[in-house]
TrEMBL record:
Transmembrane segments: 21-45, 51-70, 82-100, 120-137, 149-166, 172-191, 198-216, 279-300, 312-338, 344-369
Gene: ftsW
Top EC class of this enzyme: transferase
Family: Belongs to the SEDS family. FtsW subfamily.
Keyword NADP: no
Subcellular location: Cell inner membrane; Cell membrane
Metabolic or biological pathway: Cell wall biogenesis; peptidoglycan biosynthesis
Protein name: Probable peptidoglycan glycosyltransferase FtsW
Lineage: Bacteria, Pseudomonadati, Pseudomonadota, Gammaproteobacteria, Lysobacterales
Job of this protein: Peptidoglycan polymerase that is essential for cell division.
Enzymatic reactions: [GlcNAc-(1->4)-Mur2Ac(oyl-L-Ala-gamma-D-Glu-L-Lys-D-Ala-D-Ala)](n)-di-trans,octa-cis-undecaprenyl diphosphate + beta-D-GlcNAc-(1->4)-Mur2Ac(oyl-L-Ala-gamma-D-Glu-L-Lys-D-Ala-D-Ala)-di-trans,octa-cis-undecaprenyl diphosphate = [GlcNAc-(1->4)-Mur2Ac(oyl-L-Ala-gamma-D-Glu-L-Lys-D-Ala-D-Ala)](n+1)-di-trans,octa-cis-undecaprenyl diphosphate + di-trans,octa-cis-undecaprenyl diphosphate + H(+)
Location of region: Disordered: 417-436
Enzyme Commission number, as recorded: 2.4.99.28
Record InterPro entries: FtsW (IPR013437), FtsW/RodA (IPR001182)
Length: 436
């Protein structure tokens, strides 16, 4: 009994570590964001560093929130999943509360906090991903086998989308539905059964885009921005001119012309165009490569979590990876004229208090996923007889003989099945290939 207690104590003493590749990509993109916010907003106010100072304040608060998230056990967060879902609805309804909600450019998406305005959908993205991750863990096999379990998260997403469309916020609505569909697929949903809701959703969102006049104008201006360069095509035509001026190596940091009152929202929605103008094709490729590293590493870590039977961690990584990848694709696509204007910021780079704060929280959760994954891998190495050397910790006492801890190969599938959480039938976990 004393030996078991000592072994349990040794396992509890083993700590994890944060993924250096992921942390490096986050720091690099955040640093680029600070530089580009300063450059793109220098001519927008009487004080040249107004938006930079504002961005740094929100970034500082966001880093504090990220540290808190990175130091919080995921199981502690998971137990509040229902409260988090309720928070999503409360936040989206709060914008319609007289005296609290705030309207900007005809859209009611913000709540007034006195010192600043907060766009509630940014918090909803994080809270919803955590709730859906918890749901997929609790009903993992039912989602794969039954209609009601699959339709419940779609119904929740649909209710949130209705509230978003009332604001209106078509871009975030589309993003939320795409995140839901992606997480359900990665969670093992039955693909033929999933195809019907996807088709209905695509038809419905397309109809909403067509019947609303201002959305239709965005589509037509996207198809030919030069037809009405001083009207509906103004933003996109100036964005394309900025990208074209950058050529291969750019005009140099701070030398953008389009940011000088020509390109609207140069420090938020169209910051990528200013970056392309100042750093050229090579600079934009570097930024795309950093996002590819961030998202690719996130999905890889998610798959490692699934292999380790840490499904909640894995689904959080999948959800955040889907969010960052799709929002980045849309933001860059809008700046390059391959997608209609959506009003989505470029994660970690664009200015915007709400976006900066909640993206930092998401990055903190990702880092927590990597910490707990590494900790689990080190503890597993000790359990299977690798000793503390395999876990990167000092040796407290000699490891047990290998013969006493090894598992016969024939028994490995049985042991793996026993550790699973299947309640209905065996299932195949999502995989992108064998991971080393």
């Amino acid at each position: 009994m004393n030996d078991l207690s000592r072994q349990a104590t040794r396992l509890e003493a083993i700590e994890g570590s944060y993924d250096k590749w992921l942390l490096g990509a986050i720091i690099a993109l955040t640093g680029i964001g600070v530089v580009m916010v300063a450059s793109s907003s220098i001519a927008l106010m009487s004080s040249p560093f107004y938006y930079l100072n504002r961005h740094l304040i929100f970034l500082a608060v966001g880093i504090v929130l990220a540290v808190v998230a990175a130091r919080t056990e995921l199981k502690s967060i998971e137990q509040y999943n229902q409260i988090l879902l309720l928070g999503c609805f409360v936040l989206l309804l709060a914008v319609f509360t007289p005296g609290l909600g705030s309207t900007v450019n005809g859209a009611r998406r913000w709540i007034n906090l006195g010192i600043s305005k907060f766009q509630t959908v940014e918090a909803v993205k994080v809270l919803y991903i955590v709730w859906l991750s918890s749901y997929l863990v609790r009903f993992r096999d039912e989602v794969n086998a039954t209609w009601p379990a699959m339709l419940k998260p779609l119904g929740v997403a649909g209710a949130l989308v209705v509230l978003l469309l009332l604001q209106p916020d078509f871009g975030s609505s589309t993003l939320l539905l795409a995140i839901t569909a992606g997480m359900l697929v990665l969670g093992g949903v039955n693909m033929p059964r999933m195809s019907m809701p996807v088709i209905i959703g695509l038809v419905g969102m397309s109809a909403l885009a067509i019947i609303e006049p201002y959305r239709m104008r965005r589509i037509t201006s996207f198809l030919d921005p030069w037809a009405d360069q001083q009207g509906d095509g103004y933003q996109l035509s100036n964005a394309l001119m900025a990208v074209g001026r950058g050529e291969w190596t750019g005009v140099g940091l701070g030398n953008s012309v389009q940011k000088l009152y020509y390109l609207p929202e140069a420090h938020t929605d169209f910051i990528f165009s200013v970056t392309a103008e100042e750093f050229g094709f090579l600079g934009t490729c570097t930024i795309v490569a950093l996002y590819a590293l961030l998202v690719g590493r996130t999905f890889w870590l998610g798959m490692r979590c699934v292999e380790m039977k840490r499904h909640f961690s894995g689904y959080i990584a999948f959800g955040i990876g889907l969010w960052i990848s799709m929002q980045t694709f849309v933001s860059i696509g809008v700046n390059l004229g391959i997608l209609p204007t959506k009003g989505l910021t470029l994660p970690l780079i664009s200015s915007g208090g709400s976006s900066v704060l909640m993206t930092c929280v998401a990055m903190g959760l990702l880092l927590r996923v990597t910490y707990e994954l590494k900790r689990a891998e080190r503890r597993q190495a000790v359990r299977i007889g690798g000793g503390e050397e395999a876990a990167g910790a000092p040796v407290a006492e000699p490891a047990a003989p290998a013969a006493a801890t090894s598992v016969p190969k024939a028994a490995e599938p049985v042991a793996a099945a026993a550790r699973g959480t299947s309640r209905l039938q065996s299932r195949i976990e999502p995989t992108f290939g064998r991971l080393s």
